[in-house]
Amino acid sequence: MSQQLVIDAHRFVRESRELKGSLELVELPRLHDLLTSVTGSVAFRLKGVSGERGQPRLRLEVNGVLPLSCQRCLGAVEEMLEIDSLLELIPEGSEPTQEELEDDSLDFLPVAGPLDIRELVEDEILLALPVAPRHEACDLPSDAEAGERPNPFAALSGLKGKLN
Ligand SMILES: [Zn+2]
């Protein structure tokens, strides 16, 4: 059964709490269109931290392997997820200042009331994924390639010559 993962984000930060867990891909429906299979899971770690001036922040790490659908052959492309995000809590509806927006080391998370960790993890994964995943070389049968393979017997006879 899917667990409820809702926190009071500000309290979580105030108490410097940490939460570790995993989410099944089945529980992340907004990813499903991008995947070739929904078996598997991702691991996450959420930590409440404070900035230099006491700004409430969440550090979110997400790790796992996602079978993305290749844009060329529709086969699975394994995407390694290694997300490490720093999110500063801001009141819902408020705009970050220009100075804050230029800071690449963190993102801003408008929070009003309870925060659903499952949705947060899903958001961060969607932001981290490549726009058009594809294999470097698709595993499709190709006659042109087969003709170019070196003949293993030719290589063997070369070896033989050296041995004698
Ligand atoms: Zn492919």
Description:
By secondary structure, this protein is of the alpha+beta class. It has one domain (6-163). Helices cover 24% and strands 34% of the residues. It is built from five helices and seven strands. It has helices at residues 9-14, 98-101, 117-128, 143-147, 152-163; strands at residues 6-7, 18-24, 41-50, 56-69, 76-91, 107-111, 115-116. The chain has a five-stranded mixed sheet with strand order 2-3-4-5-6. Strands 1-7 form a two-stranded antiparallel sheet. β3 (41-50) and β4 (56-69) form a beta hairpin. The chain is elongated. Mean pLDDT is 86; it is low at 143-148. It binds zinc ion. Zinc ion (ZN) is lined by residues 70, 72-73, 75, 134-135, 138. Zinc ion binds at residues 70, 72-73, 75, 134-135, 138.
List descriptors.
binds zinc ion, 5-stranded mixed sheet, elongated, alpha+beta, 164 residues, two-stranded antiparallel sheet
Which compounds are bound in this model? zinc ion
Ends distance: 69 Å
Low-confidence stretches: 143-148
Number of strands: 7
Q: What is the ordering of alpha helices and beta strands?
A: EHEEEEHEEHHH
In round numbers, the mean pLDDT is 86
- State the major sheet: 5 strands, mixed
